[in-house]
Protein 1
Amino acid sequence: MPYIREIVEDGHPTLRKVAKKVDPKEILDPLFQQLIDDMFETMYDAPGVGLAAPQVGVSKRLFVMDIQDDDHPPAVMINPKIELAEEEVEMTEGCLSVPGKVGEITRFRRFGLSGLDRNGEKIRIEGEDLLAQCLQHELDHLNGVLYIDNARNIRPAATEEEREIAQAASAEAS
Ligand code: GNR
Ligand code: NI
């Protein structure tokens, strides 16, 4: 059964490491499949639209995401590689590992990654706006980067909209 893992926060050393490539032979291992299930469970509990393995203290190159959009089902991305990056725009962003805060960051409005899914099959995920933003945010986590490294005007989430972006953050910031 999947369980909710602890989400580590800014200051935890695992968030600052460049995560290790996953050996494709490891993907079908029941323990690896359990990690994926637990990451979904943890993401939905938070709640968040994405979660990278380093956020649960596992320094491996994978993340899960679900932007809750009819066109984009829940996905697992393992060993991602950039395939598309177009049109820089400013976006408001938050992170479960930096609870209660939001900031402005420059992101590509259209972005795409290729990699492996949970069956070890090649996949490509690309899209725009929130999907593109989430792909970039999760890829950054795999490289030891937090959005606060590049964001401007980092502040406590104050408005309803900012709280929604900060997600679980709002619960903890009270
Ligand atoms: O749940 C999340 N929401 C979010 C909102 C704007 C930009 C990025 C994100 S990702 C975040 C979950 C998270 O921290 N994933 O690493
Ligand atoms: Ni994050």
Protein 2
Amino acid sequence: MNQDSILQEILSLKKEKNAVILAHYYQVPQVQDVADHVGDSFALSKLAAELPEPLIVFCGVSFMAETAKILSPEKTVLLPVAEAGCPMADMVTAKDVLALREKHPEAAVVSYVNSSTEVKALSDICCTSANAVKVIRSLHHKQIIFLPDENLGSYAAELIPEKEFILFKGYCPIHEEVMEIDVKLARDENPDALFVVHPECRPEVRHRADFIGSTGQMIRYINESNHHSFIVGTESGILHPLMTGNPGKKIVSLTPNFICPNMKKTRLEHVRDSLQQLKVQIELEADLMEKARLPLMRMLEVS
Ligand code: 13P
Ligand code: SF4
């Protein structure tokens, strides 16, 4: 079956089942194009909570679909590919959080949404890359346990020197792989370009950037800029909305293999099957969801 017929099937199933399709900017172009809303993890979690449709197909990775379910427990949330996970989210466990809390009883636990529901349930507040600094500044605590992403935590720590940070040593294997030398090479090849980067990159990469932000913030920065040339330091899926939205600008990826294999697992066929068979439904224990909702709601309140 060709892609056009699958697309037609998706559109009619979506109407029939009163569903909404959400996709992250790292999804393949065809999936971004069939989605009703494409966004960064913050925008998508807000949308999941606000949208009226009772059925959400979440094209992203599992922590994102789980966040949508926690914020909208009455809705059915589908993750088209069950195996689409996030290795960074798996790096920290509930046991790690409990141990850190015991060691630093005065500290607030701030968890990046790239974490499990169990970890969220033990946190004081959640954040995304779009609002980490704002979220941490909103806290009265002097000590902050930040997890799991050490790079995002060190970015926030640099901007909030008045607080003391205890950083968990988690990382995104995709962003961590990018080195300072890659920035030098890309800048040598594109001497007039502005360099925009995601805060999941290493500090030495981040320190060479003209702009640091979440995927949504990077897109807004480039869309609104009068500059003509950009080097983009995050997963390659972001090039699709950037190139479509900025036909006159030169936009290149920092490295050729900036690819998150988990984000690339979802294809149009999976979206169709997911709608057709109502799978894979996110199911979380009610008690746990209740506990994890609080830190997420706090994040939404201060953002
Ligand atoms: P955003 O918060 O920018 O959407 O990023 C999510 C993510 O997983 C980055 O690797
Ligand atoms: Fe996780 Fe990194 Fe993929 Fe984002 S890019 S979903 S942090 S593995």
Protein 3
Amino acid sequence: MKVLVVGSGGREHALAWKLRQSPKVSEIFIAPGNGGTRLEGTNIPVKDNDLPGIVSFAKENKIDLVVAGPEVPLVLGLQNALVKEGIPCFGPNAFAANLEGSKAFSKMVMHDSGVPTAPFQVFDEYERACAFVEKKGAPIVIKADGLAAGKGVVVATTTEEALEALESMMVKRDFGSAGERVVVEEALKGEEASFLAFCSGEDYALLPSAQDHKAVGEGDTGPNTGGMGAYSPAPILPADKYEETADICIKPILKHLAAKGEPFVGILYAGLMYTENGPFVLEYNVRFGDPECQPLLMRLDCDLASIMMACIEGRLDEVEVKVTPETAICVVMSAEGYPGSYPKGMELTGFDKAEEDDKVKVFQAGTEYKDEKTLSSGGRVLGVTALGTDLADAKARAYRAVERIGFEKSYFRRDIGDKGLKK
Ligand code: AMP
Ligand code: GLY
């Protein structure tokens, strides 16, 4: 099989690394990839949102499977465009991808299918949204409807902050058309977990739970990032609760979409919050999380390409999604200053030393290979990932590996996994 992975982050490095282990996969291309994916296959100079470019490359090179890493191409209709050409795509069609592409759509689907989620209202008019916020008061959550690269959610602790968020989204248009419409919802309190499933219409196969660390600072302080680390399993969602949790947040969504004639194929990712009143869904993503993908794929103990093809061909019951009982953890090393402005071009060394421990894998994200050197080129640069007999063992291995990496002006959180260790 010839596989094309779309995207350029740590998630895509992990996808290419795992797909390369498949006995069925003969060749891997990554569009556009990074300094790490070039070690797993061939990077091609096609951007992840260049749908015509992706489709024509896939056609010309007789690609057997396209795997969409990020949400943007899916929301733009990558699956639809590929299917028209008879090319299999792992990822949902544009309609189903709206679960992530439009928060208003996602909340409506949750509401209609009985999924527990925070009470909400959708607004297209700024004045009405302001009046609602003033009536409700803080804390309150303001969400831009469309994709905003993870920056479109404001958990406001004061009414002023909420009104500012509305002005930024609806008047100043800081997120462009993504903020024309907003969702205003009740603020919930609790610990978060990520729960992902391989989906094929109404059939699904669950992955183990994971937990992301969105805030930049230790103790979950400071601004939100794309994710500073993740581990799996997350003790807040133990294995004996997976089935009942899927009944709450996976099954009803798949059923709803299938009934609409828009069956979901790909990864459905439920972002959960464990409140005093049980789990609530904060959001859905229609792809692997980054960095959750890295520890999840480290634990996956079976052929990823076979599972993806089974999802596409409606034969999920024929494959087994097997995972190791070990714990995996990913520590993200970023450039100093991220998620604000940060320097680029720092040389990265020590990967071999870090990987001397055979339970460690360094996934690359914002990196490029130039003049025989690996240089940083983005905010989140590396995802140092380790397996261990338990969370403490995995954590110790990951941080030992981090210390072996040479990376000036780097930053990483030292407390990845600590919420799980407390349990
Ligand atoms: P989302 O993109 O919807 O997952 O939101 C990003 C982050 O905002 C989540 O991971 C939560 O930390 C926070 N968040 C979203 N919705 C709520 C809510 N209703 N109450 C409290 N925090 C929220
Ligand atoms: N790690 C969260 C996300 O990928 O959306």
Protein 4
Amino acid sequence: MKVKKAIIPAAGLGTRFLPITKAVPKPMLPVFDKPTIQYIAEELRRAGIEELIIVVGPDSEVIMRHFGAAPELEKRLLSDGKQKLYEIEQATCSFNVKFAIQKEANGLAGAILCAEEYIGDEPFALLLGDELIYAADGEQSCMERLLEIYEKTGKSVIATMEVFGDDVSKYGNIGVKSEENGVMQVDAIVEKPTIAEALSNYAIIGRYVLAGGIMSRLKALKPRNNEIYLTDVLDELAEKGELSASTFNGVRYDVGDKLGFVKANIEYALMSAETGEDVKNYLKELAEKL
Ligand code: UTP
């Protein structure tokens, strides 16, 4: 079955990034001139997925406003002859987005379940709202890669990146049973392992394609510490041989982490046709003083 829908969970508390996340949801943090979540919507469009379900917290109407129409602003831009800015505004509200509310931030699996009415038992893409994956034009993006693998195998597939040293303990880690043409068969998952416990150097990152039936599996899970965990479903899939993984082309930015946020902003500003040269010159001047 073709994947037509995606869930973007954007309802976390973002405590690592306080105080800005007190009033601004983490996926609305800007990277250069757009909020992170808009890059994610663009990544999905590029991969051919047009229906987005964004899971927002009860106080996150700013995300809804961002993707909604702004007739007064549009009228003003047109009457002032600001055609380019009008087109930018139009592009922002051109996505097919539905919103689901997560009343209490009770974890990623809880956020996914809030989107159940839109997904039922269909397969879906899952993209964490605070991670950016840049792919150059003409390069296969991470989401395109996952969809290609899903369409070939019919199995759930997760994106991974290679990590080394202490970084291994910051992410979910996979056991690799076999590998063919860059597609790994996953046979186990460990959450944030010590270096000794790690099963491989592959860390799970925030891009997934989950096969049909995942919502039912999530609902059937027994809570641990009063929460259900996506990892428990991934574990089940791995044990049954129903989970694949792949690395990807491109660069990942963890915008929810302060250093990751700064790196993303510098690199996107450098890539911009508008500011790239000026930012490069500024960075060179700055580097000489450091
Ligand atoms: P994180 O675990 O990075 O986000 O979730 P967090 O809980 O907001 O951040 P910290 O750790 O307190 O700083 C990854 C993604 O899942 C969403 C977040 O918004 C983020 O996009 N999420 C997380 C939800 O939608 N609901 C939740 O209950 C938890």
